[in-house]
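Reopening this one. Same input as before:
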Amino acid sequence: MTDPYNDQTGRASLGGTKGLAVARLGIGLVQGLLLYALYRSGASHDALTWPATYPPLFGALILAVSFTPVMLLAGVGRLSVKALAIWGLISAAMLMLLGWHDVAQQATDGRFYPPYLRFPVIAFAAAALFIAHHLIVPAVASRRWIADFDDYFDTAWKAGVQLALSLGFTGAFWLLLFLGAALFRVISLDFLSDLIGEEWFSIPVTCLVFAVAVQLTDVRSGLIRGVRTVALMLLSCLLLVITVLVAGFLLALPFTGLDGLWKTGSATALVLSAAAALIILINTAYQDGREDNLPPVVLRVAVRVASVLLTPLILIAIWGLSLRIGQHGLTPDRIIASACALVGVIYAAGYGWAALSPFWKKTAWMKPLERTNVAAAVLTVAVILALFSPLLDPARLSVGDQVARLKRGAVNAAQFDYGFLRFEAGKPGRAALADLAKSSNAEIARRAKQAQATDNRYDLKQKDDSLPPRTPRVGVWPEGATLPPGFVTPVRRDDPRYDCEDAAECLATARDLNGDGKTEVLLADRFRIALFAQGPDGAWTHQGDYRVVFCGSGSNDVRELLKNPQTAPVAPAWPDLSTPRGEARFTPEQDCPAPVAVNP
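Same output, byte for byte:
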């Protein structure tokens, strides 16, 4: 096995351990200073400075500066200076491309603040960089396009443990700083609290401490391998648990059917998560595949069974995706899920072959798993780069599919989701919505223009006159009481009663709140209390909502407050004012009473 941590891969050229320490500290310090400079550029939303004034560039720099130095910290001493510099430039360029595209394709209405990036691109970019780095390092060290699998295993899993320990070390460092600041505050010294609150200190120091942690864990690589061995042993034991659970789930499906799974609305994500857990735990048991690392017999059996179980899980995920796409078309989430399912197919096919091949061909235990892991890793990086770049942009593909469904009549003008184009599909969605606003179909054009003129999805739903009236289902308090006639009647979307689809969601009580001899109705959901009064025509109309401020401990469910006998009308502490332009309503300065000071 090639050792990717020996002096032949870069340590000697950096002057040994001292050179490594200097290089890593320098990388950490430079990263901290660059991140602070970017922070300063976008710290004030009212006075942005370059490069925050140009969002695509700012997002690209944030992504590159956040992750490329971490890769460099891991690569120092494992790659030659030349190879590390080339790989650093390539990775920074790819990260900048992903960040630039993510920000550039977003559509905004003036409410666009640094760091501009969305979470999926951050998470997937980090994953792609981690995988790519640990494909490249062993290959370069062994001077081959594809290294031995045990080199991949050793490099990737050691780096994973190092990353976890380094993050933990950095977190512990800050906990100690906060503890020290609290101690100094006790004796009326605030200098440390003020210091750690300054970004010019906190950002560079965090990066520097993380670099120190990487260096410390790298120097004692034997201890890291020991921690890794213990972690792998513990995780491999969990393979038995997840295998039994997944097998039980699959065996129960013929008797329960898939309807319950489809009703969750997240069946594909749930099943793919179970498959991912199986893949990770199978690898913790297999490790590097060497004879001296073979797990116990019970784990070997569990690995084979779990490898076979991957196939039905991936098939269920693909089935669920195909049903949703067939019914509702493509969305960015479904495209990303489809990409994950594609990678899952590679794992399921390769692991299934590895588990079953001994029945017709004599081979080492689960040996085909190794080629599957390498192929799936390469595919994963390629898929991530394609999805978060202009090549296979999920928003663009989704918009094209949704508009095509509308034009061919798969969805009618009233059912089409114009809000998706307006609020969730970025610039491709806005452009498609503008085209629909010019449509020769009057209904499509009207609804597209309505969406263009709306600021948020909630308001768009309120304006949607295509939804039929709905009869609410409302619980009544006290139990056994009845609501006034006409209150439970079909209502339209703009009425708070419309969202009461289940009696457990809404609770109503009838009271005379203002002492005028007429009954009003208070309708509570989990977050608000709506007031209804009956007009001269006998119709119940929504008068407004009570804003509930929760003070102290106890349940934060507004429905529970409605049941409490202490919930009763009270006179306002201060009256509202009548002005020539309308009423001026009083709003208290403090929602909750200030705590009473107690002398020690």
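So the earlier flakiness isn't reproducible anymore. For the record, The first helix runs from residue 16 to 42.
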